[in-house]
Design a protein that fits this description.
The structure holds two protein chains of two kinds. Chain A is mainly alpha-helical. Chain A is built from 14 helices and two strands. Helices cover 37% and strands 25% of the residues of chain B. The chains are: A mainly alpha, B alpha/beta. Chains A and B meet through helix 7, helix 8, helix 9 and helix 10 of A and helix 2 and helix 3 of B.
């Protein structure tokens, strides 16, 4: 059975889950290797992997190049900050609330931007994200331009110590695995097949009787909600949020991550995020001007793997349309 | 008893009136052919009827239901399916996945996000039946875009049939086909009228006269004349504008 998210040979199908197992073991091994610092680094990478995966859901399946995805990250983050500021402590209230806020924002914005396609879609998503950015800047109560410090990490309850770094790491890892498993399932569902059909031939899909707008809106809201969760995890991780998180350059970075990893490929988002964040970290060690070598490397990668890095691992037949 | 009815349909593109007050009817179980020289407005009319374009005036109804305000997807669910002059399939997917997608559209919700579609045996059975109906059962595993032209056209028809339409719009189904493919397609179209009404836009006069119960001739966006095949053959006006060279 083919799937929207791209064929991966049977040998490689379980490879990503093996990576998850390795990631789970990392906080146990890191202290022995003197790599404690990197527990937090990898955790941040996993948050961006989730954000990139959510963008890949609408870009890869639905063919919608949204250039405002960081806006929903921000909505999730600020929703968490607002509730935390009001005294809510439980992560299991704060994170779902962040998802809900981002879902509502993406539903309202989606109703407007999904009337457009192509360049107009890119520009209108950009415009709305910049509006959200401006709103964040004007939020004096939460620090405005300077940002907001989250003094206490959301509480996990269940006897888990939220201040314990590896515990938070495992929680993020678990949520990322859950999100990826659900996206994986969605790729093989009726919904995923329909989305891929819209991406490949929207007119024919309408002629077949599909409620194209409604399907795209649901995809947009799902992607927005998951981005909201990533935003909530990001502010939990950094203990800080500022409007810079939702600047359009952040949205562009997410797009580059997806392109780098492989548009429409199941693991394209996480892979692209991982490579981007690792390259950024390594290059920063060598030079303050890390943007230039990073850019050159990205261009090189695009030449070597035009379908993205995950495309190198997939079978030549590549992305089945449905 | 009228089944599909178009009345006073008008479509203007700036100063050009591409469809100029077209009225026509297609009865149940009838193949109604629409012919006319290039630029007569046949494709515009198909787009208006299928909902890809909105008319400036006029009314489109099927079984008494007014389709005029409905978007294309709603018209399909109301029983009006179409094929495309330029083959419109999902070229990167297999034939089976093409058919599954078509069948899925009209059998339950596509908002099922997490249930594996691969396990829906009824969907697979329906797709298989559709493949057999149009004669593609031996190539269901092929990538659709790699099929020969004739088979891709058959797939295009199969996609439109999935919705079990009451009226099927066929926009030049024989375009670009060789003699053998044309015969296959003509035979396929002939089997359709048992289940639905067909509006056939076609340039191939041999096929039109073989298939059609009635014919309408479109010239400059207007219906010049409607009638049985024999009436159209005999009509002097039709011969003058259109058939003169073809039947000579």
């Amino acid at each position: 059975m083919t799937s929207v998210t791209g064929h991966t040979s049977a040998r490689l199908r379980w490879a990503p889950w093996a990576v998850f197992a390795l990631l789970a073991a990392f906080p146990l091994v890191a202290p022995l290797l003197g790599l404690d610092f990197y527990v937090g680094f990898v955790r941040r990478g996993m948050v961006f992997a989730m954000a990139a995966a959510s963008l890949n859901f609408i870009l890869g399946f639905g063919g919608l190049a949204a250039l405002g995805h960081a806006g929903f990250l921000g909505v999730g983050a600020y929703a968490l900050v607002a509730l935390a500021d009001a005294g809510v402590r439980s992560a299991w209230l704060l994170w779902p609330a962040a998802m809900l806020a981002a879902a509502i924002a993406s539903a309202i914005i989606g109703l407007v931007v999904l009337r457009t396609r192509g360049v107009y879609f890119i520009m209108s998503t950009l415009a709305f994200a910049q509006m959200l950015y401006s709103v964040a800047v004007s939020l004096r109560a939460y620090g405005g331009d300077d940002g907001y410090n989250l003094f206490e990490r959301p509480a996990f309850g269940l006897g888990l110590d939220s201040a314990h770094e590896p515990t938070f790491y495992w929680v993020v890892l678990g949520l990322l695995a859950l999100v990826m498993a659900l996206f994986d399932r969605a790729g093989r569902s009726r919904f995923g097949h329909a989305l891929a059909g819209i991406r490949d031939n929207e007119t024919r899909m309408r002629a077949l009787g599909y409620p194209v707008q409604r399907l795209l809106l649901v995809a947009f809201v799902v992607a927005g909600a998951v981005a909201g969760l990533a935003g909530a995890l990001l502010v939990s991780h950094n203990a800080f949020i500022s409007p810079a998180t939702m600047h359009w350059t952040q949205s562009a970075t997410l797009l580059v991550m997806v392109v780098l990893g492989g548009i429409g490929l199941r693991w394209g988002g996480p892979l692209g995020a991982a490579v981007w964040i690792a390259l950024e970290e390594v290059l920063k060690h060598f030079t303050e001007y890390w943007h230039l070598p990073l850019g050159l490397l990205l261009i090189a990668i695009v030449f070597v793997a035009p379908r993205g890095l995950a495309g190198l691992l997939a079978t030549p037949r590549g992305t089945g349309a449905t | 008893m009228s089944h599909f009815r178009v009345a006073g349909l008008v479509k203007r593109f700036g100063a050009l009136t591409a469809t100029d007050g077209v009225s026509l009817e297609v009865a149940r179980g009838e193949i109604h052919a629409l012919i006319g020289p290039n630029g007569a407005g046949k494709s515009t009319l198909v787009h208006l009827m299928s909902g890809l374009l909105r008319p400036d005036a006029g009314r489109i109804e099927l079984d008494g239901v007014d389709l005029t305000p409905l978007p294309m997807e709603a018209r399909t669910r109301a029983g009006l399916s179409r094929c495309f002059q330029i083959t419109s399939i999902f070229p990167r997917a297999t034939v089976r996945d093409n058919l599954l997608l078509a069948v899925q559209a009209c059998s339950g919700s596509s908002l099922r996000l997490f249930a594996d579609r691969g396990r829906e045996t009824r969907l697979h059975d329906a797709a298989q039946a559709l493949a057999e109906r149009v004669g593609l059962q031996s190539v269901t595993a092929r990538i659709a875009g790699t099929l020969p032209h004739g088979a891709q056209r058959q797939l295009d028809v199969a996609l439109a049939l999935a919705a079990r339409p009451k009226l099927l719009l066929l926009d030049e189904p024989l375009a670009g086909m060789g003699a053998e493919d044309s015969e296959t397609m003509t035979a396929l179209i002939a089997t359709l009228k048992a289940d639905m009404a067909v509006l056939l836009i076609e340039h191939d006069m041999k096929a039109v006269f073989a298939l059609a119960d009635r014919v309408s001739v479109l010239v400059y966006g207007r219906v010049l004349v409607s009638g049985t095949v024999d009436q159209i053959r005999a009509d002097a006006r039709v011969q003058a504008v259109y058939l003169g060279t073809e039947t000579a």
